[in-house]
Amino acid sequence: MSAPTRPAATPATVGRLTTRPLDPDADAPLLHRWVTTERARFWGMQDATVDDVRAAYAEIAASPHHEARLGLHDGEPAFLAELYDPAHHELAQHTTLRPGDCGMHFLVAPTDAPVHGFTRAVIEAVLTECFADPEVRRVVVEPDARNGAVHALNAAMGFTVEREVELSDKRALLSFCTRDDFARRTR
Questions:
Q1: All residues at 6 or more sequence positions from 102 whose CB lies less than 8 Å from its CB, including other chains
Q2: pTM of the predicted structure, to 2 decimals
């Protein structure tokens, strides 16, 4: 899954979005500032310390089934993306997964200068990165059931809700987006 900096197709009005592998040691202080904000409450790390964040992302970096990527907006850190194999996630207990499924999470950094359409551009860029892998046929997400803003974004990208599921840390809205559904929504 891991690769060096990768470009993503983004609307020209938003700027250039790329990702690079996350460095748990170097990036933990930055991520800590992002994940402990009220805006990131659904990320589940509001009470985390910098060391907690470093440890969580070191665990992801060590996993062959999960990767974290730091998203850059015109070269500056602006979002976080996690890609994972849902067959090695508790989701496997709640649905029938298929070969070619890829799990995804994303978090947009807090900002004092919001750019209209930026969050939509980020999710589109992350999905474009997922589907750039020819083996990925479907992207799986399981956002908190209370996160209406992300559900709207997911629907706009072509996700179909399967159902709510009770995970160890949240009640989640299990949803899937096929390569074809994504292509139809982003043409």
A1: 83, 84, 85, 86, 130, 133, 136, 138, 139, 140
A2: 0.90
